[in-house]
Amino acid sequence: MAIDLTSLPRPSRDDTTVSTMARGLVGSEILRIAAEIRELVAKGNKVCNLTVGDFSPKEFPIPDGLRDQIGAALQAGETNYPPSDGVLDLRQAVQRFYERSLGLKYPLEGITIAGGARPVIYAIFRAVLDPGDVVIYPVPSWNNNHYAHMLGAKSVVVTTDAAAGFMPTLAQLEPHLSTARLLCLCSPLNPTGTMIDPEALRAICQRIVEENRAREGRGQKPLILMYDHIYWVLSFGKKHVTPVALVPEMAPYTVFVDGISKAFAATGVRVGWGVGAPTLISRMRDVLGHVGAWAPKAEQLATARYLDDTQATESFLTTMRQRVDVRLEALYKGFQRMKDAGLPVEAIAPQGAIYLTVRFNVVGRDGLATNDAIRRRLLEKARFAVVPFQAFGLAEDTGWFRLSVGATSVAEIEDALPRVEATVREILAAR
Description:
Shape: globular
Number of helices: 14
Oligomer: single chain
Strand content: 5-15%
Largest sheet: 7 strands, mixed
Order of helices and strands: HHEHHEHEHEHEHEHEEHHHEEHEEEH
Distance between the termini: 63 Å
């Protein structure tokens, strides 16, 4: 007879069985919103879901070649443990990919493979930071606050603005660089879909080099730059730039976060990589080895073979960019039409990634005191699901939201926009 344990206590912030860190760790706001949407859909409601930074396999299937190579590797019995830093074939393929596409040739010791980009980010934080060390990150940005919390680091938050595409400037970062151990940048940026200006990045990098030269003379640890460019192949019109290409002296201080999840719509395949100086990468490899956050061996071998098929990858990425861009443009043009009609909405033209930044400037109208209240109104009235910038660390209720197009079609977007316009007009008409 089974022992009935269903009466065990449920999770609580006051639970003394877990650590202080775990009690203070905030769960994903995006996943909470996604649960609301699933409940609505389960009740038969049609929702234009622009919340998750994921891809619907129906709208964005992974490349045929990648899928076939995964199957072939599994059939060949490639199901045992991979090396802790990744299979050699994939590390070599990433090395060639970076040299071919970014003009950066790293040694193999400067490349490590993980089960997606998230473990790479965790490994950077863990390898660089001691408790109490300072980490700088702009907001809005994705999850830096949670990683800093887990590591017991001191967060220095730099609030950005729409005028600069929500990208930080050297002037904003400068006051904090002399005390920091880690600076986190992302371009194209999640959640905004904007890209950093090359001259702005150059200025930041030159200042980091200057700072680290001074630290070296004092025997101090350097300032490290985590450069998350997981969306770099999905850029529209603007050229992607890297710290090391702009300022080669940044090579010892830069770690790239990358992988196949966004470029090849392969979020569930779980293959990511970190690229940087071997001194840093070797410690990240050790962290990942103890965590066991390896990408499955079959998927690693399949990714290696697919990356080396340059004709197939370039063809897929051309189509991928087109299919993402047409969705972003449909949204952007729809909001531009509303703005031109005098409605209090604005959007930043898409530059990269799978996101559009939109502002519903209706805080204070019709009882809508917060971004979350606006989000709920859009979901209830327009069946239009979006994520407020509070999910990305921005505190102010200024009406800014992330819209993600990976799980929806152009038809769904065009069908939803009139409902959104009607909802905004209803808000304005209320007394």
